[in-house]
């Protein structure tokens, strides 16, 4: 990567901080555990994810979404040649250089968003769902663990497993919201196993047999959480505290979804803010 000029993007970094704080996400509480420099690096990664995700979720025509994602793909190339144009990209260029982040991981997130930007995903195969989870979640995890301070194989295993666990939990949490966009991430093999032939989101969610499909996805997520926890124990001491908070919050979300059940899919199951604070305290001082 080419050398970059002195950091002149204090305004962009302040805007990124404000954006993350205003979002009120679980991510914010987890990243509070990091030293300031690493925390701000993670905030920049969050802002990048938000921009790409907003493109895919917009009401724009697919062609416009693809064009905007293609422009970000070009901007990622510029990030890694030291010629970024956008304020966020300039912050990301310094982050990528400082923590030796991989260009491929930035691009894989765009690949994942392109899967959402075209024709709505409906009942993908298990293999397609796993690829989607890797692109939109585990790739972000691979960027994150390097900023946390561990670039070893065990840290990548945390990203692999935890990314999938978080995304599967998101899928269960957002079934109704995704259906409103014409999307259905429940895999076709599990639908078939439980006797559901339709791939129409509204029809599938109204079918009482979807309870079994959701329970299977929850079991898959739980197995990934356990896999991630085992890998965290092998990482450099202290580096995976933010990942542990994220795992704790999302595991709590999964527990609340299970207790709510799969017949009231439109009923939210949020994790209380106090629980998030307690998890942050459990894994380190705020």
Describe the structure.
The protein has 286 residues and is mainly alpha-helical. The protein has one domain: Farnesyl Diphosphate Synthase (Orthogonal Bundle). 71% of the residues lie in helices and 0% in strands. It is built from 14 helices and no strands. Helix 4 runs antiparallel to helix 6, helix 7 crosses helix 8 and helix 13 packs antiparallel against helix 14. It is globular, with a radius of gyration of 19 Å. It starts with 9 loop residues before the first helix and ends with a helix. The mean pLDDT is 91.
If helices are DSSP runs of H or I spanning 4 or more residues, what is the number of helices?
Answer: 14
Kindly report the oligomeric state of this protein: single chain
Helix/strand-derived class?
Answer: mainly alpha
pLDDT averaged residue by residue? 91
Helix content: over 70%
Largest sheet: none
Question: How large a portion of the residues is in β-strands, by DSSP E?
Answer: under 5%
Number of domains: 1
CA-atom Rg in angstroms: 19 Å
Second rung of CATH, namely the architecture: Orthogonal Bundle
Q: Briefly, what is this?
A:
71% of the residues lie in helices and 0% in strands. It has 286 residues and is an all-alpha fold.
Features:
Farnesyl Diphosphate Synthase, mainly alpha, 14 helices
Write the layout of secondary structure elements.
Layout: H1 10-23, H2 26-31, H3 36-57, H4 62-79, H5 87-99, H6 103-117, H7 126-148, H8 153-173, H9 175-180, H10 188-193, H11 201-206, H12 210-232, H13 241-260, H14 273-282
Helix pairs in contact: 1-3, 3-5, 3-6, 3-7, 4-5, 4-6, 6-7, 7-8, 8-12, 8-13, 12-13, 13-14
């Amino acid at each position: 990567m080419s050398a970059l000029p002195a950091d002149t993007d204090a305004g962009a970094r302040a805007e990124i901080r404000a954006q993350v704080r205003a979002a009120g996400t679980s991510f914010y509480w987890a990243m509070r555990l990091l030293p300031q420099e690493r925390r701000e690096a993670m905030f920049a990664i969050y802002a990048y994810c938000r921009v790409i995700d907003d493109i895919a979720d917009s009401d724009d025509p697919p062609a416009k979404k693809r064009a905007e994602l293609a422009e970000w793909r070009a901007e990622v190339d510029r990030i890694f040649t030291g010629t970024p144009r956008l304020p966020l990209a300039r912050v990301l260029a310094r982050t990528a250089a400082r923590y030796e982040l991989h260009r491929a991981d930035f691009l894989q997130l765009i690949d994942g968003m392109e899967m959402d930007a075209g024709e709505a995903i409906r009942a993908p195969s298990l293999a397609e769902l796993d690829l989607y989870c890797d692109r939109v979640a585990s790739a972000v995890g691979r960027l994150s663990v390097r900023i946390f301070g561990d670039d070893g194989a065990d840290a990548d295993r945390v990203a692999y497993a935890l990314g999938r666990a978080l995304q599967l939990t998101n899928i269960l949490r957002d079934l109704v919201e995704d259906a409103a966009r014409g999307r259905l991430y429940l895999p076709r093999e599990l639908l078939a196993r439980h006797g559901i032939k339709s791939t129409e989101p509204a029809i599938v969610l109204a079918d009482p047999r979807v309870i079994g499909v959701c329970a299977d996805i929850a079991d898959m997520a739980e197995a990934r959480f356990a896999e991630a926890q085992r890998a965290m124990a092998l990482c450099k001491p202290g580096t995976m505290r933010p990942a542990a908070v994220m795992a704790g919050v999302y595991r709590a979300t999964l527990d609340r979804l299970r207790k709510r059940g799969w017949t009231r899919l439109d009923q939210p199951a949020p994790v209380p803010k106090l629980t998030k604070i307690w998890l942050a305290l459990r894994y380190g001082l705020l």
